[in-house]
Design goal:
Radius of gyration: 35 Å
Strand content: 5-15%
Mean pLDDT: 77
Number of domains: 2
Structural class: alpha+beta
Shape: elongated
Order of helices and strands: HHHHHEEEEEEHHHEHE
Distance between the termini: 52 Å
Low-confidence stretches: 106-119, 279-284
Number of strands: 8
């Protein structure tokens, strides 16, 4: 009696959803769909593709009749069979009903009534388990391995950027990221790391300098020739980025930034020098120092930096190497 009650229970008006007798239960829907599947004819290979109609050379090696080489000549004289128009229509309507829940007889004012899909009883949309409810709603999950992008306008970033005045060589691309710029694999193009932004995922920000790419160099796995000379990086910081930041941010914020590349380099190497002096470790190391560029200042800082950089590119200085530069962001997800 209890089982029959649960099977036939349609809900009460005090609880959502209100289910009437026109709604099909989940089990009823499965049973009806199974019956419809039984009405679909079993499709075999068409006559012209059947083994006995194929020449010996066209048969699969494991065919039982491969020793009868001339059998196909006899069968090729027989006319090919086919389904009639009515049989195709009936088959089509049956398949349509399985996937849509209705057929042309369900139309009312050009609106299809999905009889078989209006499930109510046993509907896991209202299961006690949250995981089952999410699966029933068809919520999408993502399995993204990496996020990559090339662009030329830094203002597309709308969050705080932790700027690294001193490039971190550990961040240098050492293998392919499956992106090509003007026919050149991206990890072959000279570049340097200038910061990070975001959280879960965290994005690394690079500047790529295609003008420094030399196609005649023979690249190897352990030598990609993609490093940018320190003097060039220092000149970019001292003449473009750092002056633009000091121009935009408030005086109090400006005090927290290093005034030049050399100052930042000295600070970054201080820990390594002390490490050698006090023998805390055998080899010196470089401290990674970053400075936060607030999201509200990014657009104005970049506009100022870009003007300085464009002017330098038109000159005869070393910053001509930035002609055709590209920003690149990369984030690997685990």
């Amino acid at each position: 009696m209890l089982v029959d009650h649960f099977i036939n229970f349609k809900g009460c008006r005090r609880h959502y959803p209100i289910i009437d007798d026109k709604i099909t239960g989940m089990q009823e829907f499965i049973d009806d769909r199974y019956k419809l599947l039984q009405r679909i004819p079993q499709f075999a290979d068409p006559d012209f593709a059947q083994i006995e109609r194929l020449p010996f050379e066209a048969r699969l090696p494991d065919d039982d009749d491969e020793n009868i080489q001339d059998e196909w000549k006899r069968f090729s004289k027989d006319p090919l069979s086919h389904m009639t128009v009515e049989e195709w229509k009936d088959c089509y309507q049956t398949i349509e009903t399985i996937f849509t829940g209705g057929d042309n007889s369900d139309d009312e004012d050009a609106i299809k009534l999905d009889r078989y899909l209006e499930v109510g009883k046993g509907d896991v949309m209202f299961a006690n388990s949250q995981i089952r409810r999410e699966k029933a709603r068809g919520e999408v999950t993502f399995d993204i391995d990496s996020i990559l992008a090339l662009f030329t306008d830094l203002s597309v970033i709308k969050t705080v950027i932790a700027i690294s005045i001193i490039a971190n060589p550990i961040k240098q691309l050492k293998k392919s990221v499956h992106l090509i710029h003007n026919g050149v694999p991206l990890h072959w193009i000279p570049h340097f790391h200038i910061g990070q932004f975001g959280h879960d995922p965290m994005f690394d920000l690079f500047i790529f300098l295609p003008a420094l790419y030399n196609k005649n160099l023979k690249r190897r796995k352990n030598n990609l020739f993609n490093f940018v000379d320190e003097k060039l990086r220092a000149e970019f910081m001292d003449k473009c980025l750092l002056p633009a930041i000091r121009q935009v941010v408030t005086p109090n914020e400006s005090q927290s930034w290093d005034v030049s590349y050399v100052v930042s380099l000295a600070k970054s190497q201080a820990v390594g020098i002390e490490g050698i002096q006090y023998k805390y470790q055998k080899q010196s190391y470089t401290q990674r120092v970053t400075f936060d560029l607030d999201a509200e200042n990014i657009t104005e800082v970049w506009n100022s930096c870009n003007l300085r950089l464009r002017k330098a590119i038109r000159g005869n200085g070393t910053l001509k190497a930035f002609k055709g530069f590209q920003f690149f962001i990369s984030s690997t997800l685990y």
